[in-house]
Amino acid sequence: MTAIRDSLARYVAVRRALGASFYEPALALGHFVDLLEHEDAEFITADLALRWAMTSTLVERATWGRRLSQVRGFARWMNVIDGRNQIPPAGLLSARRRRNAPHIYTEQEIDLLMTRAAQLQSRTGMRALTYSTLIGLLVATGLRPGEAFRLDRSDVDLVSGILSIRESKLGKSRCVPVAESTRVALEHYVQKRDQLCPLRLSEAFLVSERGKRLNAGTARSMFVRMSRAVGLRSATEDGRDGYGPRLQDFRHSFATGRLVEWYRAGRDVSRELPKLAAYLGHVNVGLTYWYIEAVPELLELAAAYLDKNCPGEQP
């Protein structure tokens, strides 16, 4: 282990001791250290930090800013140890982000993706099994993709049909009950997984072909290829995958689906929203209200509901 990688291990340990889960930043900084080692760099430089942050071209500028911000925190730590480590100046890349309008999957699109996932080839058959289950789980529960990747076997209660989401966004934990059909599908996955991958190499619930925890970056890349195969994502002029629906959009589709159902049923959505916010793990109801603003159909349904039930509040 190089000195800088050893320092990263101590930095991650300190951040976690202070209460941060620090899962994705730790992975990202590990890749940054890979670059430093490849370049035989003994110290962090602003140029290397900027080059690494901007490695991925088909992402928003805010993603570059977030990656550079992760390096900046580590660089401050390293600069205290040795002043030759440069701290990337603030403002090089903005980490501020505008929320894109969500892609709301149709039932046909979900069917196409599920069919494509079931056709994925691999030596043991685990790839098709795991990706079909991943998509089905996201569709049925609205979990964040990262929450699904971090599920351990002990987090999935197949008797009660409850998922334990531990220390998710902002350190919040919650229990997510699932429908009986989802519980049965997860039970089927467990049976097939343990047949195809009998040696337990990880405590993860969703595993890769090699029996290890499904890697977030690998899963997102695989989803891009599946999306392109079924026509949901087009290629750019240089042959790369263009922008298109993401795994995160299954969460958006789940939330908007519940809201549409409630409006069409004439239910008081303002009373139901806190329940949905708690189920999704939102830190406040305002985050859940964003879906109404972001989806035109929901805005129309909300306006129609107000016209019918609150006529005195019309402008």
Automatic annotation (TrEMBL):
It comes from the Bacteria. It is found in: Cytoplasm. This is Tyrosine-type recombinase/integrase. Keywords: DNA integration, DNA recombination. SUPFAM superfamilies: DNA breaking-rejoining enzymes. The keyword tRNA processing does not apply. InterPro entries: DNA_brk_join_enz, Integrase-like_cat_sf, Integrase_catalytic, Tyrosine_recombinase_XerCD. It comes from Paraburkholderia youngii. Residues 100-306 form the Tyr recombinase domain. PROSITE patterns: TYR_RECOMBINASE.
